[in-house]
Design brief:
Length: 65
Amino acid sequence: MIRRLKSFWQIVRRLSGDDAYERYLEHFDRHHQADPDHAHCQPLSKKEFFKQWQEEKWRGVKRCC
């Protein structure tokens, strides 16, 4: 039962974007830290990440007509 609840909670977090920063850090470690050209780069802070995420989400026209 607890396993199902945890699984459900992970799905909810993914759909809501609540785990976006955690997924970003995993992606950064996997793809950027391993790359010698990007080894000197640091990941964004949580605050910087969400600021950039919100700016990208709301950039441009967001209406149907």
